[in-house]
Amino acid sequence: MKPKKPKYEDFKTVCSANGGIISGIAAYFGVERKTIYRWCDADEKFKEALEDSRENFLDLAENRLQTLVKGIPEFGENENGHRVQVGWKVPPDNASVFFVLKTKGKKRGYCERQDINMNANVSMEGHIDIDQWIKDKSKK
After folding, report:
1. pTM of the model
2. Which domain holds residue 21?
3. Residue 40 in contact with residue 67, Cβ under 8 Å?
4. Is 63 exposed, middle or buried (0-12, 13-18, 19+ CB in 10 A)?
5. Domain presence at residue 126
6. pLDDT tens across 67-117, in order?
7. Beta-bridge partners for 72
8. Taking Cα atoms as reference points, which of 21, 17, 10 lies closest to residue 46?
9. What secondary structure letter does DSSP report for 53?
10. Is 3 left (phi over 0), alpha (psi -120 to 50) or beta?
11. What is the domain count for the chain?
12. Within a domain: residue 139?
């Protein structure tokens, strides 16, 4: 028996609650993963709901990463009554800083290796015949 496709609003809510993770969505509806894919292939609104839930989940992760990079300062008052940072509720996380620099900072040179374009168009004008060059050098 073919599983009954849920209402769009229900599907959208479950997608959002599961961060767009197919196995969680399928488990909620009691269907196989391939059924979720079929629903999305057959209905553009379902497909958009799934994609939106994945994008929202990624936004959530990026927001958390931003918090880890910045840290959460703790404020208090100094002897003059001015508000100053007195410590950290959550200190900046060095591993998160390195991750951001290595991924989003590549254009600025923050990487562990250089990406080399092997498809570059290299001109061979003025090339040297190495065999002839060796013969010429050995004659001298």
Report:
1. 0.67
2. 8-58
3. no
4. exposed
5. no
6. 999 999 999 999 999 999 999 999 999 999 999 999 888 888 887 776 666
7. 90
8. 10
9. H
10. beta
11. 2
12. no
